[in-house]
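User: Could you go from structure to sequence for me? I need the amino acid at each position, not a summary. Structure tokens:
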């Protein structure tokens, strides 16, 4: 009998890019295809996706992509994996709604087979029998998965928290999870994002009192910035606006898009006449208006930043406005959010963030939620997933110290590792070097690793161009080499840098064997290498060097 293999392509030991391959014999399914957000030092790159080329050797085995929910870090890479492996996709109605918009942007919608699944539905794919189980999270229509395999049942939590009173839809389906627990579960792959936080994660409803207070106190306009995907939160803002006789104007592309999808699919309950356009909003009294906007992370191009710094569709933040940042700070965005808050204060508005009032709750399981999940599923092995290493580690510590799991039953894995399960043991048997692919935000194109490397080099060490003009007949220099440096420190003319560089190039030319002189590409490479060596010795820098050889 074969073993079951779990191979994370992303999302384990990092924030974002969640993607897990599950393989048994000749069948493989992929759970989630998420985007990641590279650190600021990756020049001009906004997003990245797992390196799906790794899956090439399993091309004939991949039978489906299963999406647990519609967050970008679980769904954002869908177009990129489908371009390489066009297999059917299984997801909830709302997740499909988001996925379809994305595929449309990539002009893929007509080429992809998408199955909408309901909670409690079971889909059979080769040796896998997958049940979709309702999970609660910060957006709607989310799933955990129970996957029966020939070696045992695997439960993948997706992202979750134990919310017994969500604003929209039914609570998390612990009863079904428990029934799998009673039957016996081999491994639980479990969300670790909030594993460092003690206690329970509050229900989505927990922000209502703070919002009621804010609306009671506000005398001018209220501007609420939230994640466009936080559908429960959007419903709360709509409800409270209605309650306080305020109209709502939705601003920002992703916010408008998500409100539209959620409304179409019946997830949002929007009273007739509540929503107004930007134009209409301008003629409504300040104390009868709410703007629901994008830009809670201080993104410079989003609605809120634009309103705070210049104008967005003719709207600016003004004295008397109350701005609510109803979102958490995604790691890495601290500076831009801090700058945004400064701009809003400068304009004389009041700002309320998570630290001042309870205007945000997490969508992820805290430690006591993890306890509830683990005790429901009662797995033989716990495998922490979804989170940075410290979160996975704390998840492991919690399960060991508070739920009585032995060290060998909590398995820490890394991206690219192959975790083999035979029903008795769980062993990491291989490690693949799976990288990430950078994506150009504007054109949806993959950016070559080399390009990113060059951009970094340009930013740190600048560029040096070299033009050498040779006599076509004699192969001798027609004029001194032309060398221009930009962004390279220690390259000004005063210290003789250019003169010395010219000398190095001239010498390199004279030493070049005849065969190299006849082949311009070889000659260019020789000059590049010699010049690089010289510059590195002189300045310590490694600029991009662009050699050109002309024959006249
Ligand atoms: Zn999520």
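Assistant: Here is the amino acid at each position, in order:
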């Amino acid at each position: 009998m074969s073993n079951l293999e779990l191979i994370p392509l992303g999302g384990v030991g990092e924030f974002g890019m969640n993607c897990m391959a599950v393989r048994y014999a000749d069948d493989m399914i992929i759970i989630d295809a998420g985007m990641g957000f590279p650190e600021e030092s990756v020049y001009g790159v906004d997003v990245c996706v797992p390196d799906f080329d790794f899956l090439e050797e399993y091309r004939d085995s991949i039978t489906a992509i299963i999406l647990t929910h519609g967050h970008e870090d679980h769904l954002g890479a869908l177009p990129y994996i489908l371009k390489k492996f066009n297999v059917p996709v299984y997801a909830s109605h709302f997740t499909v709604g988001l996925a379809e918009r994305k595929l449309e942007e990539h002009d893929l919608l007509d080429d992809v087979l998408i199955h909408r699944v309901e909670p409690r539905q079971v889909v059979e794919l080769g040796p896998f029998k997958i049940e979709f189980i309702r999970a609660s999270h910060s957006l709607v229509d989310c799933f955990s998965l129970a996957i029966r395999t020939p070696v045992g049942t695997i439960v993948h939590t997706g992202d979750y928290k134990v919310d017994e009173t969500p604003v929209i839809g039914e609570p998390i389906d612990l009863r079904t999870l428990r029934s799998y627990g009673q039957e016996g579960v081999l491994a639980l792959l479990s969300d670790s994002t909030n594993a460092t936080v003690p206690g329970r994660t509050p229900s989505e409803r927990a922000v209502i009192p703070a919002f009621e207070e804010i609306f009671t106190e506000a005398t001018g306009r209220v501007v609420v910035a939230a994640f466009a995907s936080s559908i429960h939160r959007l419903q709360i803002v709509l409800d409270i606006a209605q309650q306080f006789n305020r109209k709502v104007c939705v601003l920002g592309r992703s916010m408008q898009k998500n409100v539209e999808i959620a409304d179409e699919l019946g997830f949002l309950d929007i009273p007739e006449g509540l929503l107004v356009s930007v134009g209409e909003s301008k003629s409504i009294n300040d104390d009868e208006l709410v703007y629901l906007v994008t830009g809670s992370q201080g993104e410079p191009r989003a609605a809120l930043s634009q309103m705070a710094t210049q104008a967005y569709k003719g709207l600016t933040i003004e004295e008397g406005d109350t701005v609510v940042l109803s979102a958490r700070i995604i790691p890495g965005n601290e500076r831009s959010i801090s700058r945004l808050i400064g701009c809003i204060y400068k304009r004389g508005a009041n700002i309320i963030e998570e630290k001042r009032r309870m205007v945000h709750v997490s969508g992820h399981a805290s430690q006591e939620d993890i306890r509830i999940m683990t005790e429901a599923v009662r797995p033989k092995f716990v495998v922490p997933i979804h989170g940075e290493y410290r979160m996975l580690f704390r998840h492991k510590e919690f399960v060991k110290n508070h739920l009585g799991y032995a060290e060998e039953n909590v398995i820490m894995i890394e991206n690219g590792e192959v975790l083999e399960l035979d029903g008795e043991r769980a062993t990491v048997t291989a490690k693949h070097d799976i990288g990430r692919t950078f994506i150009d935000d504007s054109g949806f194109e993959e950016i070559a690793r080399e390009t990113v490397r060059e951009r970094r080099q340009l930013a740190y060490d600048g560029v040096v161009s070299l033009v050498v003009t040779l006599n076509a007949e004699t192969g001798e220099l027609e004029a001194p080499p032309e060398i221009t440096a930009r962004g390279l420190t220690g390259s000004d003319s005063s210290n003789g840098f250019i003169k010395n560089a010219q000398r190095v190039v001239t010498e390199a030319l004279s030493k070049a064997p005849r065969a190299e002189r006849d082949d311009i590409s070889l000659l260019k490479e020789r000059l590049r290498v010699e010049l690089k060596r010289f510059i590195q010795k002189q300045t310590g820098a490694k600029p991009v060097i662009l050699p050109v050889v002309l024959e006249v």
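One structural detail worth keeping in mind: The pocket of zinc ion is lined by residues 69, 71, 74, 137, 159 (CB under 6 Å).
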